[in-house]
UniProtKB/TrEMBL annotation:
Keyword Nucleus included in the entry's annotation: no
Source organism, top-level taxon: Bacteria
Any single GO BP term: bioluminescence
Protein's UniProt name: Long-chain-fatty-acyl-CoA reductase
Keywords for this protein: NADP
InterPro entries recorded: Ald_DH/histidinol_DH (IPR016161), CoA_reduct_LuxC (IPR008670)
Organism of provenance: Paraburkholderia caffeinitolerans
Keyword NADP listed: yes
Pfam families: LuxC
GO molecular function, one term: acyl-CoA dehydrogenase activity
């Protein structure tokens, strides 16, 4: 008997709509969910009069911090029925195992703590610019200083669903920038952001932050919806997490007045210097750190290690060294704690076929694991990755031996996001060159999935600053302006 689809309501400006008439399939086979038809509600969804955002800007920043703190207290999965429903659906739609998902859901309240919100807002935008008009000091111009303020914008957020924290961060960023948000949820996590919006309604249904957040689902590519939403009369910014096809599709709607901020998927890399082979103890230590970069979040993130360049050498002794390293890394991968990584619950069958095929090419590759869903370490016997490197997933990584780190540096391009590096001295030595090549985040080996400082740029840009509208106010000398009008003063003199 086919299971009834999960019901996924939509939230529009403080109202929950649950007439779930349309049914869609999630990204994992057999899971379906039903949502309301968005078409009849588009007029309520879109904010065509931007002056209606004045209520947001009447809030003090500390009012926003206090609201988010109260919200965070209510987002305890042990007590919040909305989050419990989101978790139950995510167990079926997400590529993450239950133990990893549970860890993320239990961590949600910490993102709303006042100290975290203040630091995030100050570092990513600047609280003074969010709160008022900030004078700009100048050693060139005299008289009244220019003033700048960051205003919120009407945004559509097309979010990713590989981890639930994407939706959490979007709600928080929308609040402290005083923006008006339409969040389009993904099919692999259609309910988490909705659960947060429902909690906001339970808490304060008429609060400006509640009424300026909408969370909806439509199938990407539905022109009936998108030609209405992607309209500069109703929306000023689109923040899109998505693959090449998705971003290209959205870009077809762009026109003057509509700004696209892309956070497209990247491929990360790893570079391990010869120092890893200083001793057996060092090699085991490095293998454990690499296992974390591969296995964290079950390798569902852009940040995870996939292709790993190892300065082992490519002669017979070097190949023996990297094979030992591959075996130790696979063993460490199997020992990761369950809140961090587990065997993949939906191992890619095409990838499994590729791995099995390599076992017949033992002169070119060594394969550790990959028999079931436990993950695998593929060790190349030349300085070239496997030809299916972009398909590596489900805790599968490819170790590539090199004689010269330049081989690894040349492999970096604009699609390379995070690079885990060992040892630290190698990171410092190569950081400028890697940046020139296109790398966007350089971390210590083992820290690829750890954001010790979340208030940093992302994918080589500052997306939260771009979410804002930066307004300039100038005050000029009246006498000078009159002289300009009569020709006794020139623009060159100004």
């Amino acid at each position: 008997m086919m299971q009834s689809p999960f019901r996924v309501p939509i939230v529009i400006r403080g109202q929950v709509l649950d007439d779930c008439a349309l049914e869609f399939g999630a990204r994992l086979d057999g899971v379906r969910f039903a949502v309301p038809d968005l078409i009849p509600h588009l007029s309520d969804l879109l904010l065509r009069n931007p002056s209606q955002m004045a209520d947001l800007h009447a809030l003090r920043f500390e009012d926003i911090v206090a609201y988010l703190a109260r919200l965070g207290e209510r987002l305890d999965i042990h007590r919040n029925a909305h989050l419990q429903a989101a978790y139950e659906l995510s167990r079926r739609t997400s590529g993450l195992s239950e133990s990893i998902l549970r860890h993320f859901y239990e961590a949600i309240p910490a993102s709303f703590l006042p100290a975290v919100v203040r630091e995030t807002a100050d570092r990513l935008v600047g609280i003074d610019y969010l709160e008022g008009w900030v004078p700009q000091p100048s050693t060139v111009h005299t008289g009244e200083p220019t003033r700048i303020r960051a205003f919120g914008a009407r945004c559509v957020h097309v979010i990713a669903g590989n981890v639930p924290m994407v939706g959490v961060g979007t709600v928080i960023r929308n609040a402290f920038t005083r923006s008006d948000a339409i969040i389009k949820t993904p099919s692999n996590d259609p309910l988490t952001a909705t659960a947060i919006a429902q909690t906001m309604i339970d808490m304060e249904p008429d609060h400006p932050l509640t009424r300026h957040l909408s969370v909806v689902y439509w199938k990407g590519g539905d022109a009936r919806v998108e030609r209405e939403i992607y309209d500069p009369r109703a929306v000023e910014k689109i923040v899109a997490w998505g693959g090449f096809a998705s971003i290209k599709h959205i870009s077809g709607y762009l026109q003057p007045g509509l700004d696209l901020i892309t956070l497209d998927p990247k491929h990360s890399a790893t570079l391990i210097g010869a120092e890893a082979f200083a001793s057996d103890e060092t090699l085991r230590h490095v293998a454990k750190r690499l296992a974390v970069d591969i296995g964290a979040m079950n390798q569902e993130g852009c940040v995870n290690a996939r292709v790993v360049y190892v300065a082992s050498g490519t002669d017979d002794a070097g190949l023996e060294r990297i094979e030992q390293f591959g075996r130790l890394t696979f063993e460490a991968l199997q020992q990761l704690p369950p809140h961090l990584s587990t065997p993949h619950k939906a191992f890619d069958t095409a990838l499994k076929d590729e791995i099995d095929g390599l076992r017949f090419a033992s002169d070119e590759y060594r394969v550790f694991g990959g028999r079931r869903n436990e993950g695998a370490i593929i060790v190349s016997r030349t300085d070239a990755p496997v030809d299916f490197a972009r398909a590596l997933a489900c805790r599968v990584a490819n170790l590539v031996p090199i004689d010269d780190v330049d081989v690894a540096v040349r492999s970096v391009n604009a699609y390379t996001q995070t690079i885990g590096i060992y040892p630290e001295a190698l990171k410092v030595r190569l950081r400028d060159r890697l940046a020139f090549q296109g790398a966007q985040r350089l971390v210590s080996l083992g820290a690829a999935a750890i954001f010790e400082d979340a208030a940093t740029p992302q994918d080589g840009i500052e997306p939260v600053r771009r979410m804002c509208k930066w307004i300039v106010e100038q005050t000029s000398d009246a006498t000078m302006l009159e002289q300009l009008a009569t020709g006794t003063h020139s623009l060159k003199e100004s």
